[in-house]
Automatic annotation (TrEMBL):
Source organism of this protein record: Ligilactobacillus salivarius
PANTHER family, alphabetized: THIOESTERASE 1/PROTEASE 1/LYSOPHOSPHOLIPASE L1
Ranges of residues in domain SGNH hydrolase-type esterase: 389-600
Name under which the protein is recorded: SGNH hydrolase-type esterase domain-containing protein
Pfam families: Lipase_GDSL_2
Domain of life assignment: Bacteria
Classification of source organism: Bacteria, Bacillati, Bacillota, Bacilli, Lactobacillales
Length: 621
């Protein structure tokens, strides 16, 4: 290349030698043709220096990233300093408009040890914000068809899976692998035995393999390890049983099915997905043989903001006996349908050309509802006294009266209701009351408390004061106000509320240990246009805990939330959109209290529960 003195030709190209660049700087006539060769010469000088030393740079990293992709996303146009990626432990520098791999970040001076420790602690800080630090999602955060053996080698093994990435842990700390023992409503959280855990030091060198045993299922200690990987069978626990890793050595009360807290192969936390959801746990639903019952899609679906994009299917092996109801919002189980195990499936997505597109195992959920058909002659010959303790749902009288109407026409069982309130059917319902109020307040919302005596819930005093000779069944149908008055930031597990239930039931059992206890769930709030998702989610959490509480204490659980239609069993009014738009729209008049149709369905379920318990009493159960 020949460059004339005071050369006015444009400077073009980027593949020049240093000499050519120097000549251009000296001789080009215009400034714009001088600045570019200066910049190119500076780049060549920088690259030459880094090229000689890039493998031995020991500077403290400017910032750490989970992987190269995250680094490129954060700094697409480069940045000064040394960047480190966690997935491979390499350092990166910005060169030639690209992030260049400088090899392993290590140095004889020990900077690598400090960096590795800092990265490990950084990830631990994230994990310390939650008790559950891992939950298995097949095809998402585990590799299948193999396991890690005690030599830290991957060995082919069908129906096994293993974590290909390293999970940071605290030294000499206890952790526990847990899962539900089944997919049913009566499932319990149990520890997982035979999980093989490989322990690693701070530089991810293999230490040894340990495993969880049957004596303390699921529990292990990290000893000197700072990272772990592990292998488990896919046969023992399915994804629907939520196999998870928790901190500590205590079984959690429940396992939430969410994506938060899981780590993928790049250590990146997967955030909560609004698209994720689950179906309600399996429950038993009593049904009188000569009455139908309905189960509603929205009541089956938990945690989804928009249930319109979730399709619920019933695996029907009953010859189309159980079909969609007329509104298309649920399923009708007709009279004389017998005992049934209904397998519901739900899929997230759309159905173009009748083809479902969804993520296997992640967005397909299952639930089983057991229909326990109660014969009309159940409890034949029994004289049963019933007390219902409740809130405004009971105080409205409609579902107690429906229950009493069915009881009065019962030719097999004599059913009497006791209480100080109610018109046609007696009860103890008080608007706005919760279990805590029943155990602490002498008066609330203008209602007196007939159970409180010397500051305590005293069932014996209640029975004697009101000249009630005995009672066989006590139904406690609260929950709505327990939830409304609860502070989730203080007591998200409702432990204080369940202590109030303990106090009430202990007092009842002290009066007569043979009294049958039945506890009602809340109902789903009005859900027109996917409204009240926050209320629905809180109530569903309560209902799960209540179902578990009943199971643990051998009480009967009444799943009211299944049988009340959250769309069509509420009251509506026609209202004008606003002062300037006279168009009339439908608006829910009451989000909490159902229409008469919803109350009557609650009455049917209450009656079926009483008949079941009457038969249990007859059989000495």
């Amino acid at each position: 290349m020949v460059i004339e003195y005071r050369d006015g030709t444009p400077f073009t190209g980027d593949n020049h030698t240093p000499t050519e660049l120097a000549n251009a700087i000296r001789t080009k006539k215009y400034g714009k043709d001088v600045r570019e060769p200066i910049a190119q010469l500076a780049d060549k000088l920088s690259n030459a220096v880094l090229g000689q030393n890039i493998g031995s740079v020991v500077a403290t990293p400017t910032k750490a990233f989970t992987n190269l992709s995250e680094l490129q996303k954060a700094y697409p146009n480069g940045a000064d300093g040394v960047m480190v990626t966690v997935d491979n432990g390499h350092k990166y520098f910005w060169q030639n408009n690209d992030w260049v791999d400088g090899g392993n970040y290590q140095t004889p001076q020990g900077n690598a040890d400090a960096t590795v420790s800092a990265l490990h602690n950084q990830m631990l800080d994230v994990l310390d914000q939650q008790n559950k630090i891992w939950q298995r999602k097949l095809y998402v955060n585990v590799n299948t068809g193999a396991w890690l053996n005690d030599k830290n080698m991957m060995v082919t093994q069908s129906n096994w899976c293993w974590t290909p990435y390293y999970i940071p842990v605290k030294k000499n700390s206890d952790y526990i692998f847990v899962a539900y023992d089944s997919g049913n409503a009566n499932s319990k959280v149990v520890g997982i035995s035979s999980v093989y855990i490989n322990l690693y030091s701070s530089d991810k060198s293999f230490i040894k393999q340990i495993y969880t045993n049957n004596s303390n299922p699921g529990i292990f200690n990290t000893e000197s390890a700072e990272y772990i990987r592990f292998s488990m069978s896919m046969n023992t626990f399915s994804d629907e049983q939520y196999p998870s890793l928790f901190k500590g050595n205590t079984l959690p009360k429940e396992i939430e099915n969410d994506i938060y807290g899981l780590f993928d192969t790049a250590y990146k936390q997967l955030g909560n997905s609004l698209a994720d959801f689950k179906l309600t746990p399996s429950v038993s639903l009593p049904k009188i043989e000569n009455l139908p019952v309905q189960i509603y899609d929205d009541a089956l679906i938990e945690y989804a903001v928009n249930t319109d994009i979730i399709k619920v299917f019933l695996y029907d092996n009953f010859g189309n006996l159980i079909v969609r109801n007329n509104s298309g919002s649920g399923w009708k189980i007709p009279v004389n349908s017998g005992n049934r195990a209904l397998d519901f499936n739900a899929i997230l997505g759309s159905a173009p050309e009748s083809y479902w597109r969804y993520a296997p195992k992640l967005y397909r959920k299952q639930s089983r509802i057991f229909i326990n058909e109660i014969p009309t002659n159940a409890g034949k010959g029994q004289n049963i006294k019933v007390l219902i303790i409740g809130d405004s749902l009971t105080n409205y009288n409609i579902y107690p009266n429906r229950t009493g109407e069915l009881a009065n026409s019962d030719e097999n069982t004599t059913i009497e209701f006791i209480g100080t309130r109610g018109d046609n059917t007696k009860h103890e319902g008080r608007g706005g009351w919760s279990a805590k109020i029943y155990t602490t307040k002498t008066q609330y919302n203008s209602y007196d408390n007939p159970f409180l005596n010397n500051g305590k819930f005293d069932f014996s005093n209640y029975m004697n004061t009101n000249n009630f000779s005995n009672v066989d069944i006590v139904i406690i149908n609260l929950g709505t106000n327990d939830i409304a008055l609860n502070r989730p930031d203080i007591d998200n597990n409702f432990s204080g509320d369940f202590k109030a239930y303990d106090e009430i039931i202990s007092s009842i059992k002290a009066y007569d240990a043979n009294i049958k206890i039945a506890l009602g769930s809340t109902i789903t709030p009005a859900r027109l246009n996917n409204a009240n998702i926050d209320v629905k989610t809180r109530r569903q959490r309560w209902n799960r805990l209540m179902a578990r509480y009943c199971l643990d204490n051998n009480y009967t659980y009444i799943p009211y939330w299944l049988v009340v239609d959250p769309i069509n069993d509420f009251k509506y009014e026609d209202v004008q959109i606003d002062d300037y738009n006279t168009t009339t729209i439908k608006k829910v008049a009451d989000n909490t209290h159902p229409a008469d149709s919803g109350y009557k369905k609650m009455g049917d379920l209450t009656y079926a529960t009483i008949k079941k318990l009457a038969e249990d009493i007859k059989q000495g159960k």
